Recover the amino acids of this structure.
């Protein structure tokens, strides 16, 4: 489930026992992997139910980690508290991504790293970007926006972080109905999404490989892996 995290960690030099913060941890998959690797990990999330899921997962795996409840845009930690800050498949829900990246930079130690993995849209594809935003907002109202790789790089630069890696990897979404079920999409919104798919422009069909397989609507979302570093003083 977290092979993308494992691959990214191969490109990040970490201390033997790094101080790690996993933001918007959800079920805890990223942070618990790092705990299994021997690091000191704090799992954070906005909601208590998600933290409870992560607690149960940690207990089941016999892992000792820390838990904190707070928004991604207001990290309640002193400056330079962590060697690594991670955030996977959550930033598109954040209403203030610039503030989030600024906070990440603040709590990172000098030469610490930031790992972000999330859905995105290729640079310079405004038609596809607008279409995807419309679909995602209908499917899941908590969605805010997928930022392009260039937008994330600009936010990192403004926050004093140097981007080392920015890679796109296609991820196949197996079935539209499964996609609806994960977010409990309303019937009205499902109908609107289906209409958007039927009328999808060529840029969308090309970029996302939008098609049908065995009667199911399938596509490939681009996933961004971004690694940035806080430079030394």
């Amino acid at each position: 489930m977290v092979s993308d995290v494992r691959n990214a960690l191969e490109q990040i030099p970490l201390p033997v026992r790094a101080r790690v913060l996993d933001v918007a941890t959800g079920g805890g998959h990223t942070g618990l992997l790092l705990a299994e690797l021997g690091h000191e990990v704090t799992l954070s999330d906005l909601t208590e139910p998600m933290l409870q899921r992560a607690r149960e997962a940690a207990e089941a795996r016999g892992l000792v980690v820390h838990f904190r409840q707070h928004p991604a845009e207001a990290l309640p930690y002193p400056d330079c508290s962590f060697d690594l800050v991670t955030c996977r498949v959550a930033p598109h829900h954040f209403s203030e991504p610039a503030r989030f990246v600024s906070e990440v930079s603040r709590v990172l130690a000098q030469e610490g790293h930031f790992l972000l993995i999330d859905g995105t849209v290729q640079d310079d594809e405004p038609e596809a970007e607008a279409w995807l935003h419309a679909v995602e907002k209908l499917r899941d109202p908590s969605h805010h926006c997928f930022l392009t790789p260039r937008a994330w790089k600009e936010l990192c630069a403004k926050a004093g972080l140097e981007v080392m890696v920015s890679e796109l990897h296609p991820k196949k979404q197996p079935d539209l109905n499964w996609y609806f079920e994960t977010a409990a999409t309303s019937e009205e919104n499902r109908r609107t999404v289906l209409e958007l798919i039927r009328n999808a422009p060529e840029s969308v069909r090309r970029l996302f490989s939008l098609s049908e397989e065995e009667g199911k609507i399938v596509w490939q979302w681009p996933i961004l892996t971004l690694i940035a570093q806080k430079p030394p003083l």
Observations:
- The two ends are 36 Å apart (CA to CA).
- The first helix runs from residue 3 to 9.
